[in-house]
Amino acid sequence: MTYRRWFVVGTVFAVIGALVAAFALLYGNFSPRGFVEDRYSRAAARDIGGDAVAYTSTKDPSTVAQEVSQAWQPADQYVDGSGVYLRYDDESVVILPLAAGSLILLERLSTAYPRYHSTVGSHWGWGRGNTVRGGGPGSGK
Q1: What are the C-alpha distances in Å from 7 to residues 1, 12, 52, 141?
Q2: Sheet with 76-80, side-by-side order of all strands
Q3: Residues 6 or more apart in contact with residue 92 via CB below 8 angstroms
Q4: What is the pLDDT of residues 59-84, one digit of tens each?
Q5: FRET partner for 3 with CA separation of 20 to 30 A, picked from 19, 52, 120, 122?
Q6: Whole-angstrom Cα distance, residue 32 to residue 91?
Q7: What DSSP character marks residue 134?
Q8: Model pTM above 0.85
Q9: HEC states along 95-117?
């Protein structure tokens, strides 16, 4: 009876593992960056130096932002007439209007924040999306 129980438990874990692997193959990368890379057109000519990697979409910025935000909840979001700015823990997704759709820029937060500070300065709160608390006196209380 004991061997049969272990066989059932092993089979259940094997099925769960197969489902996880199938999900990974179907949905690709598990990040906002991977989501954009899988769904939008690469536009290398619109890259900003080596920092911001560009993609385009025929959809307007608010639609693209909604798609990305539904798949990956941003830590902060700022919207104004210049575009939609999504902040994640270590990267940003900036969606700017184009004549025929949107320009989507993927950039590490360390270079995106200085670039867009004049727009998002007080709106992108530092640390609000992080789950790690500081270690100083009185921190995280």
Answers
A1: 10, 9, 50, 48
A2: 41-42, 53-57, 101-108, 91-98, 83-87, 76-80
A3: 85, 86, 105, 106, 107, 108, 109, 112, 113, 116
A4: 999 999 999 999 999 999 999 989 99
A5: 19
A6: 9
A7: P
A8: no
A9: EEEECCEEEEEEEEHHHHHHHHH
